[in-house]
Amino acid sequence: MTVKLVVLYTHPDDAQAFERHYFDTHMPLVGAIPGLDRAETGKFSAALDGGENTFYRHAELYFADDAAMSAAFGSPEGQATAADYAQIAPPGSRMFVANIDE
């Protein structure tokens, strides 16, 4: 069963610095994670329900299954990516694991 890690980033204090680090450092780390099938990211532009636009950016990392994701984040590349996330994620950012219904 395909799984994905969904990362929701809250609004950074300095959006330009965040974006620069995110694309120059963080996403290359993500791209080096072994077993990663696909990664996508985007910025939120609106909250269609009229509520507060709580989150700034999202990332979705796809893996073949839970074992592949666990192995990926147990690797040196996965650990480096997780450490960088801890450095750049604004307070209130969240991570979820979703099982993809196929």
Primary descriptors:
four-stranded antiparallel β-sheet, single chain, Alpha-Beta Plaits, 38% helix, 102 residues, 3 helices, alpha+beta, 4 strands
What does this structure look like?
The protein is α+β, with helices and mostly antiparallel strands. The protein has a single domain (3-99), classed as Alpha-Beta Plaits, CATH 3.30.70.100. Helix content is 38%, strand content 28%. It is built from three helices and four strands, in the order E-H-E-E-H-H-E. It has helices at 15-31, 66-74, 76-88; strands at 3-10, 38-43, 55-63, 94-99. A four-stranded antiparallel β-sheet has the order 2-3-1-4. Helix 1 runs antiparallel to helix 3 (76-88) and helix 2 (66-74) packs across helix 3.
Low-pLDDT stretches: none
* Alpha carbon gap, first and last residue: 8 Å
DSSP strand count: 4
What is the 3D shape?
globular
Number of helices: 3
Main sheet properties:
4 strands, antiparallel
**Rounded Rg:** 14 Å
**Mean pLDDT score:** 95
- Strand arrangement in the largest pleated sheet: 2-3-1-4
User: In what range is the share of β-strand residues?
Assistant: 25-35%
Total count of domains: 1
* CATH-derived topology: Alpha-Beta Plaits
| CATH arch. level architecture | 2-Layer Sandwich
SSE string, helices as H and strands as E: EHEEHHE
- Measured as a percent range, the helix fraction is 25-40%
CATH C-level label: Alpha Beta
**What structural category characterises the helix and strand content?**
alpha+beta
